[in-house]
Amino acid sequence: MILTLPMIMAAVSPEILAVGNSYRDLRNIKGHWGGGEPDEDVDNYNGKKHLAMQQLAQYFGKPGTKLADIQSAMGEPDVTRKDLIEANQPSSVSFEYYVYQWRGNHDFVWFRIDNAKNIVLKSAWYFAYE
What we know:
The chain is an alpha+beta fold. The protein has one domain (14-127). 30% of the residues lie in helices and 22% in strands. The protein has 4 helices and 4 strands; from the N terminus they run ααααββββ. The chain has helices at residues 14-27, 40-43, 48-60, 67-74; strands at 79-81, 95-103, 107-114, 119-127. The protein has a 4-stranded antiparallel sheet with strand order 1-2-3-4, with helices on one face. Strand 2 and strand 3 (107-114) form a beta hairpin. Helix 1 crosses helix 3 (48-60). The longest helix is centred in the N-terminal third of the chain and has 14 residues, at 14-27. Residues 1-18 form the signal peptide. Keywords: Signal.
C-alpha cells in the first residue's frame, strides 16, 4: 500500500523570499536618506532597494495576505502607526499600519493590518514628492 501525503505548499514563493533577502540586505545600508553616504542601490528611484520593495509590495499588498508571510520575507517593519494622513478613515476594525521605509519618512510602503486576524486590509505607497 502506497500512502500519498498532501503536498504542503510554502506560504511564500522561493522567488519572493529571495527578493526579501535582497531587500533585507539593502535595508541595512543607510544611504543618503538614512544619514549615511549616498548609495545608488538604496537611494535611487528604480535602484535595487526600490525595485525589491515594489515587487514585495505587489506580492504582499493584496487584501487577506497574512502578516506572518510579509514578515517572513521583509522582516519587522521600520515602524507601526495607528493612522496615516492619506488613509485616516474611520473603521470598526482594529488595525495598524506596518511601514517599510524606502527613503526614510519621505517614501515608504505601508500595509494596513487587521489586528484581530493579522491580515492585510489594504496597502499602498506613500511618496513625499520632494
